[in-house]
Design goal:
By secondary structure, the chain is α+β, with helices and mostly antiparallel strands. It is built from five helices and four strands. The strands form two sheets. A two-stranded antiparallel sheet has the order 1-2. A two-stranded antiparallel sheet has the order 3-4. Helix 2 packs across helix 3. The protein is rod-shaped and about 85 Å long.
C-alpha cells in the first residue's frame, strides 16, 4: 500500500499559459512535479479510482480526472480484475475500443454484427408471429410483422402465378 504522499499543491491565483517548471496546470490546482505525475500514472495502471488517487496525492479529484483525460489514462483497468463485459467482439473476439459516454460496442464491424445475428436467429425478438398456411403448397409457416403473407416462399408465389397462365 502506498503511504500518503507528502507532495504540496499550489493554488494558482492567476492561471498562466504555461509553467516555467513544465508542470501541468489544470483549473485552480497544479500537479507540481514529475514525482506526482509518475505516482498518478502508477496508481492508474494499478486500477485506482480518481477519488482514491486524489486522497493519496492530496490533489483535487477534478484535477486528477482532467489530467488523466488529457493524457489518455481514463480507461486503465486493474491487471488483476476480470475482463469487463464488452471488451471483445461477440463474433471474432477482437478487442474493442469503447467510447465513454456512448453506447457500448459489441462488435468490431458491421460484418461481424451481421454474421453474429445471422448465426443466432433465435435471439431476434419478433413481436407478432402469425402461423399461416401457404395457399400454393399447403405448408404451415410463421410470419411476423404487419404484412399479411399468402405464400411460404417466392417459389410458391411464382408457381401459383404460372399455373393461371
Amino acid at each position: 500500500m502506498l503511504l500518503r504522499a507528502s507532495f504540496f499543491v499550489q493554488k494558482a491565483y492567476s492561471p498562466p499559459l504555461g509553467n516555467e517548471d513544465g508542470s501541468a496546470q489544470t483549473g485552480g490546482l497544479v500537479i507540481v512535479n514529475q514525482q506526482q505525475k509518475e505516482a498518478l500514472h502508477e496508481l492508474r495502471a494499478k486500477g485506482q479510482s480518481y477519488t482514491k488517487i486524489s486522497e493519496l496525492l492530496c490533489i483535487s479529484e477534478n484535477t486528477i480526472q482532467s489530467y488523466c483525460r488529457r493524457n489518455k489514462l481514463g480507461g486503465v483497468v486493474s491487471p488483476g480484475s476480470e475482463p469487463a463485459i464488452g471488451l471483445f467482439c461477440k463474433m471474432c473476439g477482437a478487442p474493442l475500443k469503447q467510447t465513454q459516454g456512448k453506447k457500448p460496442r459489441q462488435y468490431c464491424s458491421d460484418q461481424c454484427r451481421m454474421l453474429w445475428w445471422n448465426s443466432h436467429p433465435e435471439m431476434v425478438e419478433r413481436r407478432v408471429v402469425k402461423s399461416i398456411t401457404c395457399q400454393n403448397c399447403g405448408k404451415k409457416f410463421d410470419s411476423y410483422g404487419k404484412r399479411i403473407r399468402k405464400y411460404c416462399s417466392l417459389d410458391c408465389y411464382r408457381q401459383s402465378k404460372a399455373v393461371g397462365i
